Fold this sequence. Notes:
By secondary structure, this protein is an alpha+beta fold. Helices cover about 25% and strands about 25% of the residues. A hairpin with a 2-residue loop joins strand 4 (about 115) and strand 5. The longest helix is centred in the first third of the chain and has 24 residues, at about 35-55.
Amino acid sequence: MAWFRKDGTERGAAASDTDVHPLQQQVAAPEGVADLERALADRQALIQMCLYALDRARSGGVVERLEEGLAAIGVQALRPDGERFDPARHEAGGAVPTEDPALDGIVAETEVTGFADHDRLLRPPIVTVYAKKSP
């Protein structure tokens, strides 16, 4: 039975009759899982920082060294020059007219290097594609 105050409002529960449930005990992740998740997150952050540095590097030697370091951990630079343009893997940045039908749809040049972490595309390369000249 609820108790009411003189002003008509219900009186609060006694301190021993709390409806607050004790905190659920957090289930600890198996040993090492949290460390692995942290290491993977740190790896992704470092990769992103390296890509940021690559985009701003003015020295060819610095770019080469960063790309070598990334390649050592499975992050490959993507420069698809001479490959057939694939919109699922490349981003078209421009077109170069060609009269050669064999070149139609072929990547003429990579404008911005792309990167893949093993099989996962991190950033598609931005490319210029040969396009058949209209008569």
